[in-house]
Structure formats: C-alpha cells, structure tokens
Amino acid sequence: MKTQPNINWPNNINQTNNTAALSGFLLGNLRRRTALLAAAATGVLLAAQTSSSQPPQAIGAVFVIAMENHNFTQPPTQTNPQPILGNPAAPFMNSLITPGNPNAAQVSYATAYFNAGRGVHPSEPSYVWAEAGTDFSVHTDADPNPANGNVFDAPHLTAQLNAMRIPWKNYQEDVQLASSPIHSASGTNGPVNPFNGSTQYNYAVKHNPMAFFADTQLQNVYPLAQLFDDLNNNTVGRYNWITPNQYNDAHSSLNGGFTYHGTHYTGDSANIAQGDNFLAHVVPQIMASQAYQNSGVIIIWWDETEGGDDASRTLMEAVISPLAKGNAYASSVVMSHSSDLKTMEEIFALPNVNNPIPAGETNNFGGHNNVAIVNDLSDLFVPGTIPAASLSVSPGDLVFDPHTQHYSQLVRVINNGDGPAPTPVRLVLDNLSANATLLNADGTTEVLAPLGSPYIDIDRANSTFGPHETRTVQLEFADPGGQSISYDTRVLSVVPTP
Questions:
Q1: pTM above 0.85?
Q2: CATH superfamily of 62-380
Q3: What would the pLDDT profile of 251-264 be if each residue is shown by its tens digit?
C-alpha cells in the first residue's frame, strides 16, 4: 500500500526557501503506515530540491564583522537607542541597502532577522550563540572564568573547523593592549586609533565568541591590524571573525563625541557614527582583497535587539558578496543567529551543532531557534550558492522472523545531491506506533522535537557520505500485539545527540 507525503511546516519556516536539506526539518515529512506482513513501501523525497542553477564558484573566505546594541527597525515610540535604518549618522550602512547605490551592488540584506531568543541578553550570550547555537542559560557580560560558569566544553563552530583542518582567524581590535585574550582592557592612553583618531581603547572579551570555549580561548587570536596584512598577503582564514573595539562597533561614545562627514555627534548618535565610520573604512578594504574577489563573503552582524525581543524589533543582517543577489535585495525570510551558524556549517560541510536551548528562550513564533531547523541565509545569495544536501529515504518490506518473533526492515538513505552530506547521519523515527519498539535504536531525541523519538546511526564511522551514495540501515522491531507499525521519518546530521 502506498501513502502520500504528509507535509507539516513549522511556523518559523518559509515554505519557498530551501531551508531543510540534510540538517533541517524535513520538508517532506512522510507519514508511513506499513502492514506487518510484507506490505509494500514507497520512498519519498525528504528534503527540498537543490537548484539546478549553480554559481561558477563555491564560497571562498567568510568575514563576519560584529556590531553592537542597535536595532535595524523598531517601534516609533522607541527613541533610544536609535535604529540604523534611515539614520543620518549611518550613511554608509544605509547606502548598502539602497537599490541603485553603487555600494549596494553586491549587497543583500534581511528584513526579518530577529533576536536569537527571548531573554538572550546582555551582549555575551549572543556571541556565545554565534558559536554554539545557544547561550547555555548563562546571561552575563563577565570575562570567561569557570567560576562564572561561562567557559564551555561543548560542540561549537571553530572546534568543528579545527577537526576538519579548515583555517580560521579571530581578529579582535585592541586585544594587544590586554594581558590576555580572556581579559578585557580599556583606557585613554593607548595608541592613536586609525579609524576614530582617539587614544581611547576598549577590548571587551564579551564580544569575542571563541574566548568562552575551553579549546579555542587562546587560539588564532590576532590584533585587528593583522587583518590588513593578511588581506594584502592573501593569508586570511576560510572563516574570519572581526570584532571592533567598543567605540568602533557602535557600543560606546568616545569622550567628547565624534565628528563624521562634518557633523559633530554626541550620545547614541556618536555611537552609530563611529560604527558607520569603521565599516566605511574596513568593508572596502576587504572587498579589494583577493580573498573577497575569489567568491568571498562579508557578513555585517549585530548582537542583540534593544528594548524587547518581539517581532517589532529587527536586527541588521547584511551580506556582501559577488555571489549575493545584490542591488540591496531585501529578503523577508525569517532569520536569526542560528541561521548564520547553520549557513557556516553548510558552507564547510559540517554537521549542525545541537546544544540544548533553555526552555524559556523561545523565538517570536513560540518555538526554538535550533540550528538544524531554522532558515539558513541562502535567500540572500544567488540560487545554489549555499550547498544543501538532498536526502531521500526508501524503506523496504517488513520481514517477520518466527525464531525471534521480531520484525526487520531494510531502509536505504540516498544522497541525491551533487556534494557530500555532513556526517554523522541519523535516521529518526517520529511518532512510532505505541505497540512497537525499535530494538536496535542508538538513542532517543533529546533536543529537537518531537522529543523521545528513537534514532539509529546510519554511519557510526562518520565517513564521508558522498554524492549519489546510498547507505543502508536495518531496523528491528518488537510488536507483541501483532498490530500495524507506523512512524514518521526524519534524517538529521547533528552533534551531539539529536
């Protein structure tokens, strides 16, 4: 007997966006009911189709520039801090999102980019989230210290890059003035800042995401000046995180304010002008580099919403790339910090981190921004730029063994994509009928709902799951009641346990 797919869309998934693939919510969520005695089974495609239009080259180096403490849009009743959109103190940022402006030629941006979750504040949790897809329930801006509970030993992006020997670099402005990358430093007697002309410096560890993970705290950390040498010498990483100091990231005002394009700004306007000035200097230098011109990507990222975590407040998220849709393309696809992390893992063929999100930190739609189920950033790029695996499942017949009184079933998982699928890969059986038990399950889902679903590892060796390759797994069921067996299927590539 054959059944048709039962497609269930979560309320934070845009149905027209290629969001699922291997490591997401399966867009074709198949309800499969199988008669116990050798009923026929039909394979159904479980992921969105990949585009047939491929860009001429895969994404090269990625540069993330972290900015601070301003909404992109907000309710008109909120006047402080000011929003970025339309702000006269931010002419460069607004030029990037103005169709027809030369600065916008290779820019796409998000109009529905929201906070990582309710209560993800102050700044530090958002930076931790950018690395690990959660804040681990730690809400502090304190320097990393095990006594503060803000040094983590959990899967995170740069650890994954290390495991795959993918080079990455962490550029932190003013870090050279601190005693260590894990200790903040500020003062008024530093060297003249090349961007704002002052002698004030302010390195804040809370804006250094790798510093909160025991294995990467001191790895690959460089003063910002090293970025420009690396750009000139073409020695940047494949993944590059850039944090300006707290004056150049729009967080804090310089003493006496800041004069920008002939206008003297004070207070929050000065914060914005300082950040805009920094971007106006740094973005063109990155764009002029060989690393950028070889299909590179610049992401301008903001840490957290101000004044609330609801849908009336959005964050600026702009992508600059030869592979962006360009001309200030405005995407209405719902995104968050988990979207950036998911995209990085897709670019570098990594399994999704799947660290638990605190129960109360839901998104604007009542769910959680688990990396595996959110929209990625693919709508900001030309079709096919962000690699997405396309997996299908083809289950065979159930076979009864009179000696064991068990039922077995061979299931094939097929990589229909043109690139490798990240491993490990797990086949999850959701809504398994109450009468049946999956005897050879390797565990049950603990983070990604539905919770408590049994899963089985398709590839325990974590070897490459190549394009057009098929993996076969045998399921073994007990069904003492002799009734029909039914279940939904999900395929996940997540670490740790689903």
A1: yes
A2: Alkaline Phosphatase, subunit A (3.40.720.10)
A3: 999 999 999 999 99
